[in-house]
Specification:
Blueprint lengths: L1 E5 L6 E5 L5 E3 L9 H5 L2 H10 L23 E5 L3 H6 L9 E5 L4 E2 L5 E3 L6 E2 L2 E7 L16 E8 L2 E2 H5 L15 E2 L4 E3 L10 E6 L2 E7 L7 H9 L9 E3 L21 E6 L3 E9 L1
């Protein structure tokens, strides 16, 4: 199944979509899908209600799709996790995963407007596979058990301001946590519907020009390894998100570095997970 939130900003309601494409209203069970909902066991209650035929069908045609997981507990990001992306930026392949955090309030809907910060000169795109944690994970014994702790997968747009990230000193976080810098969705696809997260195609277009065309097969560290690895350093809770890295083709690695400008349109897609599209507007 797939799950997420639909409706006007701030008034979204939770829905689940069955394998045959029928949408069901879950607002009688949970207020919305958020980090708090997953930590409180709300997703399990929705799954049980769906199995018991207790959720009413609903028509969501034409409604705004919000972020499928609002206010994650934390967003853990992985840098330089695609071989070709590391090469294009002139970096060595990491020996261990490169981790940084992104502010949870960067999350927005998959089709919402993204704000270019005032004075920004180097706002960049990054399509990523995001994993949503479904069970508390701490000090996992090996990558072999890691995928059991996932609630599902979705698309993440890890928008980045490269000057803030790389030229302003300190950590990468300051170039990653500007408002609206993490469109998420459209849906979280349950983990059982993604049998092999290492065989997904990722594509991103800027103004209809294909910029990123990669596969999760190019990851330096696969999803299972990342979940296991992160659990050695911090407790992963239900409703946390891991952005697993981006393939080659970002503006930082392209000739003339064509960073995003006011009015630019970006479209993203991951096979089996859906599509996002945003217009970028300068604040």
């Amino acid at each position: 199944m797939k799950w997420g939130n639909v409706g006007e900003r701030g008034r979204e309601r939770p829905v689940v979509i069955s394998r045959v494409g029928t949408a069901f209203d879950a607002s009688g069970v949970v207020a919305r899908f958020s980090g708090e909902t997953l930590r409180d066991g709300g997703l399990d209650r929705v799954v049980d209600a769906l199995a018991a035929n207790e959720l009413p069908a609903v028509d969501i045609t034409g409604q705004r799709v919000g972020a499928p997981l609002q206010r994650p507990g934390k967003i853990v990001c992985v840098g330089l996790n695609y071989r070709q992306h590391a090469i294009e930026t002139g970096a060595d392949l990491p020996i261990e995963p490169v981790l940084f955090l992104k502010a949870p309030n960067t999350v927005g809907g998959p089709h919402d407007t993204v704000i270019i910060p005032p004075g920004s000169r180097k706002t960049d795109w990054e399509i990523e596979l995001a994993v949503v944690i479904g069970q508390e994970a701490r000090y996992l014994s090996s990558p072999d058990v890691a995928l059991q702790y996932l609630a599902g997968y979705t698309i993440s747009h890890d928008v980045s301001e490269r000057e803030y990230q790389l030229e302003r000193g300190g950590q990468w976080d300051k170039g990653k946590s500007c408002e609206t810098f993490n469109p998420l969705g459209p849906w979280v696809v349950s983990a059982d519907e993604v049998p092999d997260p290492q065989s997904l195609e990722l594509r991103l277009w800027v103004n209809e020009e294909l910029r990123q065309d990669g596969s999760t097969a190019d990851m330096v560290f696969d999803v299972a390894h990342l979940v296991w690895y992160v659990s050695q350093f911090m407790v992963l809770e239900p409703g946390d998100v891991i952005n697993t890295g981006t393939p080659a083709g970002v503006a930082l690695g392209l000739p003339h570095q064509p960073y995003l400008e006011d009015g630019d349109h970006v479209r993203l897609a991951i096979a089996g997970l859906g599509m996002q599209q945003q217009t970028f507007r300068r604040a």
